[in-house]
Design goal:
This protein has 200 residues and is an alpha/beta fold. It contains 10 helices and 9 strands.
Length: 200
Amino acid sequence: MTDNSSFRELFGEVPLMAILRGMGVERSLAVATTAWDLGITAVEVPVQTPTDVEALRVLAEAAAPRGLRVGAGTVVSLEHVRQARDAGAAFTVSPGFDAEIVRASHEAGMPSLPGVSTATEVQAAVKEGLTWLKAFPASQLGTGWFGAMRGPFPGVTFVATGGMDATNAPAYLDAGIRVVAVGSALEDPEQLPALAKLLG
């Protein structure tokens, strides 16, 4: 059995996570620093290229003095799990649910946040011992999906990911979503300050 309840501590009271996809090392560090300074403490770097892995390493090192941790995203292979561990990632995030990836990440000391979009996937993840799951793609699932899942799976906490930005994040948070993860919208420099306003 795996356990990813440590995401409760990792996210703390902050309802947002920044996903820095394909930004390169320098821009990733700049955007992450801005996010941290604004109070958005959780940052994920998808690891799809060697440059991404280097960006993850640099951000993990930069986050440490702040007492923060950085995660690796788009982890879809055992090699990705190894790269994430070696780069200093504190957790992994995947687009879908793969028990082998979840277990390997757990064994490497990194809680896993796998993606789900159906009751079948949620049930399989719960069976594996997981209580935090990434709902993906959240903008396509809609806010009503979360209410429907809450009935049969009251012990699951969802992170809404996919198509999220400062304009629709409030609706998902109002629907009871614990964390909203924002990715491609961060190409717009106005997004981070707008999202920071949601922190109250």
